[in-house]
Write a structure and sequence with these properties.
The chain is an alpha/beta fold. It folds into two domains: about 90 residues, Leucine Dehydrogenase, chain A, domain 1 (Rossmann fold); about 120 residues, NAD(P)-binding Rossmann-like Domain (Rossmann fold). It is built from ten helices and eleven strands. Strands 1-11-8-7-5-6 form a six-stranded parallel sheet. Strands 3-2-4 form a three-stranded parallel sheet, sandwiched between helices. It has a two-stranded antiparallel ribbon with strand order 9-10. The longest helix has 21 residues. The termini are far apart. The model has no long low-confidence stretch (mean pLDDT about 95). It binds guanine (GUN). The site of guanine has 8 residues, from β4. Catalyzes the oxidation of 5,10-methylenetetrahydrofolate to 5,10-methenyltetrahydrofolate and then the hydrolysis of 5,10-methenyltetrahydrofolate to 10-formyltetrahydrofolate. This is Bifunctional protein FolD. Belongs to the tetrahydrofolate dehydrogenase/cyclohydrolase family.
């Protein structure tokens, strides 16, 4: 069996076109959705990510500001900038790019962002809203995985989903989102005794570990949907995920490639959250 490919670029394009329409409708009512991105320091990967975020906003017709600061910026100064953006009516979403320099307490910074502008979905109020089913922003990478799952047309409801990884940004929110979509959810992690045993039961596998070849073909139930959140490098320096794509694609029913699967969805869901935030203000 050869799996059908879940094309993250195609799903992202469709959703971004919807975001552009919603943005145009808001602008016609005098509200331009605005995202503020703060980058502290010179981390090369972060520079690439924030560039993509700002560019995607512009392509969707949104207003975006990128604030860059030296790595020596004090925590107090950063908190002051966040508070100013909280009070700025032209800004509907605030994102502080992580990682932050070591002398700055990232948790404190995230908790200072107004929950109603937390389009990253990292604030404890956003996490709590996801857990309880209250309105709030879902964090972008796992939310993107939900959209990829939905793009297959296979219902999530009633399926057994196995999430591998328990990070605050992906594994844990992923499990809660799948639960919200009425899947039966198992969460596996580094202390799981027999990973293969659990993954073999899965109709849906989400791998978010950060280690290549974590999921191999012998672990996958024929026909399962496999979502690969991993971003690793193989021995040749080529980008690869947590799933052994070449062999798993022969067993799975659906599979995301790396690159071109989950990757394009993170920025896309950031746009969705930002336009949604502006719609709430405009309502
Ligand atoms: N660093 C890597 N990914 C992300 C993300 O999605 N949001 C933020 N704020 N920082 C990141």
């Amino acid at each position: 069996m050869t799996a059908q490919l879940i094309d993250g670029n195609a799903v992202a394009r469709t959703i971004r076109a919807e975001v552009a329409e919603r943005t145009a409708a808001l602008k016609a009512r005098g509200v331009t959705p605005g995202l503020a991105v703060i980058l502290v320091g010179e981390d090369p990967a972060s520079q690439v990510y924030v560039g993509k975020k700002v560019e995607a906003c512009q392509q969707a017709g949104m207003h975006s500001v990128l604030e860059r600061y030296e790595a020596t910026m004090t925590e107090a100064d950063l908190l002051e900038r966040v508070r100013a953006l909280n009070a700025d009516p032209a800004i509907h979403g605030i994102l502080v790019q992580l990682p932050l320099p070591k002398h700055i307490d990232a948790d404190k910074v995230i908790e200072t962002i107004a929950a109603e502008k937390d389009v990253d979905g990292f604030h404890v109020a956003s996490a709590g809203a996801l857990m309880t089913g209250l309105p709030g922003f879902w964090s972008c990478t796992p939310y993107g995985c939900i959209k990829l799952l939905e793009s297959t047309g296979v219902p999530i409801k009633g399926k057994h989903a196995v999430v591998i990884g328990r990070s605050n940004n992906v594994g844990k929110p992923m499990a809660l989102m799948l639960l919200a979509k009425n899947a039966t959810v198992t969460v596996c992690h580094s202390a799981t005794a027999d990973l293969a045993h659990h993954v073999r039961q899965a109709d849906i596998v989400v791998a978010a570990v950060g280690r290549r070849n974590t999921v191999t073909a012998d672990m996958v139930k024929p026909g399962a949907i496999v979502i690969d959140v991993g971003m690793n490098r193989n021995d040749e320096g080529k980008l690869c995920g947590d799933v052994d794509f070449a062999t798993v694609k022969e067993v799975a029913g659906w599979i995301t490639p790396v690159p071109g699967g989950v990757g394009p969805m993170t920025v896309t869901m950031l746009l969705v959250n930002t336009v949604e935030s502006a719609e709430r203000v405009a309502a």
